[in-house]
Write a structure and sequence with these properties.
Length: 429
Amino acid sequence: MIGWALGIITSVYVLLSFLMWYLTPVYRADRKAAVVVLGDIGHSPRMCFHTLSIAKVGCPVDLIGYVRSDIMPELNENPLIRIRALPEPVKRGNMPYIMYAFRRALKEHISLYRLLKKSNPTVVLVQNPPSIPTLGVARLITLFTFPGSKLLIDWHNLGYSILAMSQKGLAVRLYRAYEMIFGRIAYLHLCVSVRLGMALKTGFAINPKKVMPLYDRPYKQYKISGSKRVEQRKRLGFGDVDAPWIVTSTSYTPDEDLTLLLDALEDYSGPKLVCVITGKGPMKEDFLKDVEKRTIPNAKIVTAWLPYEDYHTLLAVCDLGISFHKSSSGFDLPMKIVDMFGACLPVLAMSYQAIGELVNENNGITFKDKKELLDGLEILEDTWKLAELKKGATLESQLTWDALWAEKVGPVFGYGEYTGEESSSSDSD
């Protein structure tokens, strides 16, 4: 049934898109941007960073998304930035799933279209995934409502690969078709990794000259040392301030295997540590029940949901960060690791295809299973090696978002100029 719903939506969009050949671009002298994320703004740091960077070059920008948690103070304080909140999705109640999915998609289409129309943008920057309704509505806006405006797609992953984790068959094929049809044509395709850019070129036949890898980078450095580190540990109150602290951030979804963490901690025999797990999500209660069943003598496990500043403070006072992100496509890179590097925190990361673009022997360690994770945790007892990795993470924290964004994306907003090398990516990147 999901497949039929996707088919109807895709067919409508395809019919409308055929009219694009009859449109004449209209030049506008003013500049106005709209940044769209069909998710919680407070937990979409990359899109928040885009918004701040656009404002820094003097361009007014509307940030459109759900407001479900604290937002970066810099966003609220900037007079060029306006937050436009999407209304929360309808609740399912007793509705059959197909009816609920169709009703929710319809409401999101209408809400997003209205907010984009109010924004009156010359540039629309959208996050993908989710693809529905973001890509379709953005195409309609740039084709029909504001012809001549530029559409930029920021590819964080391949949406159909995420759906394929829970659905099979027709639904996945139609979602992929929708994503390819409405994701192929854009003024610029940004992507979080070189491998993802290659997948767009080969899998979706996107013009290579319009594909530009833009790595996630820390927005700023969060560094706490000495007595202030102890003070902040006391303030956070998660456990012994003199013990090793490790941290992982999760959305409690199937693409992060936290049972692997518990399995490793059960066998962990090093100095007693504090393990802080931040985040919330649909599988959190199942995880907490699993924790209660286990005997873990050498680790205190704490779960938390923290405001923006406290989250970054926590990262800065920990000794080691862990990422269990596996990637549905193998091509995306987890922002949580970038956050950890921004706090000068070395990382243990689950190994997969693209992770080497972010984590290397100078700033972290990758693992595939419980044994390799346990081996990685042993670094807590090797102060020299841990200090060396911390140096590497500190170097990563110095490579900030602003400089990279100004070089890669700034020219779209009249800041700087592209060179041929900068405006495309090659398989050898």
